[in-house]
Design goal:
heterodimer; A: mainly alpha; 66% helix; elongated
Chain lengths: 122, 517
C-alpha cells in the first residue's frame, strides 16, 4: 500500500524536485546561461505538473473518428494537454528572447557573470 | 458589430501588430499605421465602456453563440474561452488604449532616428493586445496567456535600444521576473484545475471553499501578481525597465504593470471573494504592503541623479497608494456598515489613483524623454536652464509634478485625498505614512525642477530647441487631462470609478452570467 502511494504520486514528487532545482539554479548560479536554464527547468516542472494532472487511468483520447466501442463515454477532457501545448509554445518564445538578451549582454559587457552585469544600480 | 466588440478589441490591434512589420521599407508609414490602429482601438474601448455602463456585464463566448452551450456528452462546465467584461475591465481597457495612442503619437518623433521601427510599433501593439486581453478575459488560463504576451512584448521593448548593453540587462531582468511570475501563476492555475476541473473565474469562484491547496494557490497568485506590479520586496526590476525603455513606451508599460494589479484585485475580489473569513487578513497584508511600497519607493527616489530613474522609483511609491486604497476596501469587504462608511470610498480612491497615476507619470516620464531627446543625457547634474528653451515641456513638467505631489487642483490631489480620508478611519498610522510620502514626493520633484529647468542657461545647450510637435501634442493632451480630472473629479468618479468599484464589490453580479448552475 505504501509503495502504491509513492507510485501514484511519483510525477508530483518529480515536479517538486524540479521546482526546487529550478529556483536553486535561478537564485545561486552565476552564469547567465545557467540562470536561463533554471527558468527552463521551472517551466518543465509546471508542464509536467499539468500533464500529470490530466492523466486518467484507462481513459481514451477524445478523438471520435474510428474510436473503439469501449471508448464512448470514457474519454478524457483534453484541457490539461491543451494548456501544456500552449505553455510549451510560450516557453520557446521566452527562452529565445532571454538567450538573445544574453548574447547581446555578452557583446557589450564581455562577461556572462551575473555579479558583474550590474551597470544599472542605485 | 456591437455584439462582437470584445473580440474586435483583441482582433484589431493584433491585426495591426502583424501587418506593421510588412512596412519595413517605409518606417514613417509604419508609425502612422500604428497610430491609426491605436485610435480605432481607443474608439472601440469607449464604445465598450458605454455598452458596459448602460447594459451591465458583457459575456462573450468564442466558438458558440451563448455561454450555456455544453459538451455533447452533457458534461456541464464552461469549456470555451469566455470574455467577461464588467466596469472594472472596461475601465482598464480604456486606460490601456488611451495610453497606447499617446505612446504611439509621442514615439512618432521620439524614436524617429532609430532603426527597426516597424518591429517597435508591432511590439507596441502586441503589448496593447496583452493588456486588453488580461483585463477583458473571464478565463484563468487565458489570463496567463495574455500575461505572457504582455511580458514578452514589454521586455523586448525594454531591450529595444540593443546598441546599449544596459537595455539588454534591464530587458532580461524584466523578462526573468515576468516569466517566473507567470510560471507560478500557471502552477496555481494547475492546482485550481486539479481541484475543481474548470478554468472559468466566475464558475470557479462559486466552488472554492479554501482548503490547503486553495490557500497555496491564493498565495502563489498573490505573490506573483504583486511581483509583476512592482510591490516592495520585488520592486527592483521597475527602475531598470522604466529607465531603459524608450519614453514612448513608458505609458503602455505603466498600464501593463497595472494590468497585473488589476489581476491581483480580480483574484482577491472575484475569484476568492466568496471566502468570507480570510479576506480581511489579505486586505491588511495588501494595505501594509502598500504603505511599505510607497515609503521605500519614495526614499529610494530622493537620492537619484538619473531623472528617469528617479521618476521610476516614484512609480513604485505611487503603486503603494493603490494597494493601500484597495487594501482598505478589501479589509472591510464583509462588514457592510464600514464598507459603506469608508470602504467603498477607499477603493474608489485606489482605483481612481490608477488612472491618475498612469496619466501624470506618463506625462513626467515623457518630459524626461524630451529632456533626453534634446540633451542626450539623463543625469540631472548635467542639465540646467532649460525652462526658457523648452516652454511647453516645462509647463507639462510643472503640471505633472504638481499632480504627483497631490497639490490641488490637479488630479493627484483628488484620489490621494480620498485615500487619506478613508485609510485614516481604518488606522491613523496608514494615513500618516501616506501624507509623509506625499511631502517627500514634492521635495524630490522640486529638486528635479530646480536642477533641470531653472538656473543659468548652460553654454552647451545654446542650440537646444523645443521638441517636435507630436511629442508636444502628446504631453499637452495628458497635461489637460491632469487638470480636467482634478477640476471635475466628481464626474469621473461617478461615470467611471464607482461603477468599477461596484463591479469588484458585487461578486454575485460577476458570478451570475446566466447559466450552468
Amino acid at each position: 500500500m505504501n509503495g502504491n502511494i509513492i507510485a501514484i504520486n511519483f510525477p508530483f514528487i518529480v515536479v517538486a524536485l524540479l521546482l526546487a532545482l529550478g529556483f536553486y539554479t535561478i537564485g545561486f548560479k552565476r552564469n547567465l546561461i545557467k540562470v536561463v536554464i533554471g527558468v527552463e527547468i521551472l517551466e518543465s516542472a509546471v508542464n509536467l505538473f499539468l500533464i500529470a494532472l490530466g492523466y486518467v487511468k484507462g481513459g481514451y483520447a477524445p478523438i471520435y473518428t474510428l474510436a473503439p466501442k469501449k471508448a464512448v463515454g470514457n474519454m478524457v477532457l483534453p484541457t490539461p494537454q491543451a494548456l501544456t501545448l500552449t505553455s510549451i509554445v510560450i516557453g520557446v518564445a521566452v527562452s529565445a528572447l532571454m538567450l538573445a538578451f544574453a548574447v547581446n549582454i555578452y557583446r557589450h559587457y564581455g562577461t556572462l557573470d551575473v555579479t558583474r552585469i550590474r551597470r544599472l544600480r542605485g | 458589430m456591437m455584439e462582437h466588440l470584445p473580440a474586435l478589441m483583441i482582433a484589431i490591434p493584433l491585426f495591426g501588430a502583424f501587418t506593421t512589420p510588412l512596412l519595413k521599407k517605409r518606417q514613417n508609414i509604419a508609425a502612422i499605421w500604428a497610430l491609426i490602429i491605436t485610435v480605432i482601438t481607443f474608439g472601440l474601448s469607449l464604445l465598450l465602456l458605454q455598452e458596459v455602463l448602460s447594459k451591465g456585464i458583457i459575456v462573450y463566448v468564442f466558438g458558440a453563440n451563448k455561454p450555456t452551450l455544453v459538451l455533447p456528452s452533457g458534461y456541464r462546465v464552461p469549456v470555451r474561452i469566455i470574455f467577461e467584461i464588467d466596469a472594472m475591465g472596461a475601465f482598464m481597457a480604456l486606460s490601456a488604449t488611451l495610453m497606447s495612442f499617446i505612446g504611439a503619437l509621442y514615439s512618432y518623433s521620439h524614436v524617429e532616428m532609430e532603426t527597426g521601427l516597424e518591429k517597435y510599433y508591432a511590439l507596441l501593439l502586441l503589448l496593447e493586445v496583452g493588456i486588453i486581453g488580461m483585463v477583458l478575459t473571464g478565463d484563468l488560463f487565458n489570463l496567463f496567456v495574455f500575461l505572457e504576451v504582455a511580458g514578452i512584448a514589454g521586455s523586448a521593448l525594454v531591450g529595444f535600444r540593443n546598441y546599449r548593453g544596459e537595455a539588454s540587462e534591464a530587458g532580461i531582468k524584466y523578462l526573468m521576473v515576468s516569466s517566473v511570475a507567470s510560471l507560478m501563476v500557471l502552477f496555481s492555475i494547475g492546482l485550481l484545475y486539479g481541484q475543481y476541473g474548470n478554468l472559468n473565474m466566475a464558475y470557479l469562484s462559486r466552488q472554492i471553499h479554501l482548503d490547503t491547496v486553495d490557500m497555496i494557490a491564493l498565495g502563489l497568485l498573490f505573490v506573483s501578481f504583486a511581483m509583476k506590479c512592482g510591490a516592495v520586496p520585488m520592486h527592483y526590476w521597475v527602475p531598470d525597465a522604466y529607465t531603459e525603455v524608450p519614453a514612448g513606451i513608458n505609458p503602455t508599460l505603466l498600464v501593463a504593470t497595472y494590468a497585473s494589479l488589476y489581476a491581483l484585485f480580480r483574484v482577491s475580489f472575484s475569484l476568492f471573494g466568496a471566502i468570507t473569513w480570510n479576506m480581511a487578513r489579505v486586505g491588511w497584508i495588501m494595505s501594509i504592503l502598500g504603505v511599505l511600497t510607497m515609503f521605500i519607493g519614495v526614499t529610494m527616489a530622493l537620492v537619484q541623479k538619473d531623472v528617469k530613474r528617479l521618476m521610476s522609483y516614484h512609480a513604485i511609491s505611487q503603486t503603494g497608494y493603490m494597494l493601500l486604497g484597495v487594501g482598505v476596501g478589501l479589509t472591510v469587504l464583509n462588514d457592510p456598515a464600514k464598507l459603506s462608511a469608508f470602504g467603498r470610498a477607499a477603493m474608489a480612491g485606489g482605483i481612481f489613483h490608477i488612472i491618475n497615476h498612469i496619466i501624470y507619470k506618463s506625462l513626467l516620464l515623457m518630459t524626461a524623454g524630451a529632456l533626453f531627446y534634446v540633451t542626450g543625457t539623463r543625469n540631472l547634474n548635467e542639465m540646467g536652464g532649460l525652462a526658457r528653451k523648452m516652454p511647453y515641456t516645462t509647463i507639462a513638467f510643472i503640471v505633472g509634478a504638481a499632480a504627483i505631489s497631490g497639490l490641488p487642483p490637479f488630479n493627484g490631489f483628488a484620489s490621494k485625498f480620498l485615500i487619506y480620508e478613508t485609510s485614516y478611519q481604518l488606522n491613523p498610522l496608514l494615513a500618516v505614512f501616506a501624507m509623509v510620502t506625499s511631502v517627500l514626493t514634492l521635495a524630490s520633484f522640486v529638486k528635479v525642477f530646480a536642477s533641470a529647468f531653472l538656473g543659468p542657461p548652460l553654454e552647451k545647450y545654446e542650440e537646444v530647441r523645443e521638441v517636435p510637435k507630436p511629442m508636444v501634442t502628446a504631453m499637452i493632451i495628458l497635461a489637460i487631462l491632469c487638470i480636467l480630472f482634478g477640476l471635475f473629479p466628481n464626474v469621473v468618479l461617478n461615470k467611471l470609478i464607482y461603477p468599477a468599484v461596484d463591479a469588484l464589490i458585487k461578486l454575485a453580479q460577476y458570478q451570475s452570467w446566466g447559466g450552468l448552475v
